[in-house]
């Protein structure tokens, strides 16, 4: 796995493989039940009118209620591919519950490689911005910034197998070796300024797919309507 080229790092620690909440985890492609339902994604994706070469959005780090979900995981990110393809190029944040304690951190991932954690602190309420841009010849630039903490990371990574088949802004239940992990109670995540290929993501964007996360007949998380690149995503169950 390539080591990130980091801009504006406030800590001297090196990025580490993800897994801070006590288990090896990763974010994964959309596990579709049908066109607009998934077992691990909730949010918005676009596909069918690519190639998709850039995606961006901003959000405030949702707090997790570890009294309701003492052990759980949640991830918030932007990325290319994964909705109709087998790779995902993505960056974002995590909000997990480990034995009743909230754990927050930031990462990037070039799936199927494992995610790489950044060393900088993330806390509930932080203002985050993220983007993924295709540079050509299999190279991508992934940028994640925390304006509350004053740090920003930019890394250039290569994934030659990437198809540029989708773009997405997602709240996810990460996966482990045994499959999709329990979804931590993140309340509501508010995404703003979402763009794909430089244009705001709206209800009229071609190929737009609002995705509801569901399992065992229950809704786990669901997005609101999207307006001018903004929407909320609400937690309902693990």
Describe the model.
The protein has a single domain, classed as Jelly Rolls (Sandwich), CATH 2.60.120.700. 0% of the residues lie in helices and 50% in strands. The chain is globular and about 45 Å long. The two termini are 31 Å apart. Strand 10 (127-136) and strand 11 (139-146) form a beta hairpin. With 238 residues, it is mainly beta.
Which labels suit this protein?
238 residues, mainly beta, Jelly Rolls, 18-stranded mixed sheet, two-stranded antiparallel sheet
Radius of gyration (Å): 16 Å
CATH architecture descriptor text: Sandwich
C-alpha geometry = globular
Strand content: over 45%
In CATH terms, what is the fold-level topology?
Jelly Rolls
Low-confidence stretches: 1-18
Sheet with the most strands, sense and barrel status: 18 strands, mixed
The CATH superfamily is identified as Peptidase G1
Number of spatially distinct domains: 1
Approximate helicity band: under 10%
Number of helices: 0
End-to-end distance, in Å? 31 Å
User: What integer is the average pLDDT?
Assistant: 90
Secondary structure elements and pairings:
Elements: E1 16-17, E2 32-34, E3 37-38, E4 41-47, E5 54-60, E6 75-80, E7 88-98, E8 101-111, E9 116-117, E10 127-136, E11 139-146, E12 151-158, E13 166-172, E14 175-176, E15 179-180, E16 188-196, E17 199-200, E18 208-215, E19 218-223, E20 231-235
Parallel strand pairs: 3-18
Antiparallel strand pairs: 1-9, 2-3, 4-13, 4-18, 5-10, 5-16, 6-7, 6-13, 7-8, 8-9, 10-11, 11-12, 14-15, 16-17, 16-20, 18-19, 19-20
């Amino acid at each position: 796995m390539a080591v990130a080229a980091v801009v504006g790092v406030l800590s001297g620690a090196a990025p580490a493989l993800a897994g801070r909440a006590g288990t090896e985890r990763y974010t994964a492609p959309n596990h579709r039940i049908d066109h607009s339902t998934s077992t691990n994604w909730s949010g918005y994706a676009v596909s069918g009118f690519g190639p998709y070469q850039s995606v961006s959005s901003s959000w405030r780090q949702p707090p997790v209620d570890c009294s309701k979900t003492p052990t759980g995981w949640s991830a918030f990110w932007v990325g290319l591919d994964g909705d109709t393809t087998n790779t995902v190029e993505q960056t974002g944040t995590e909000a997990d519950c480990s034995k009743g304690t909230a754990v927050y951190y930031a990462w990037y991932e070039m799936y199927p490689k494992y995610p790489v954690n950044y060393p900088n602190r993330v806390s509930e309420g932080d203002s985050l911005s993220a983007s993924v841009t295709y540079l050509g010849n299999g190279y991508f630039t992934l940028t994640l910034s925390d304006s509350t903490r004053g740090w920003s990371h930019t890394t250039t990574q290569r994934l030659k197998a990437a198809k540029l088949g989708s773009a997405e802004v997602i709240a996810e239940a990460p996966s482990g070796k045994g499959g999709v992990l329990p979804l931590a109670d993140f309340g509501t995540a508010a995404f703003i300024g979402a763009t794909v290929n430089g244009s705001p993501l709206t209800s009229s964007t071609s190929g737009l797919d609002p995705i509801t996360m569901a399992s065992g007949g229950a809704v786990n998380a669901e997005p609101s309507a999207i307006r001018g690149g903004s929407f909320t995503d609400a937690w309902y169950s693990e």
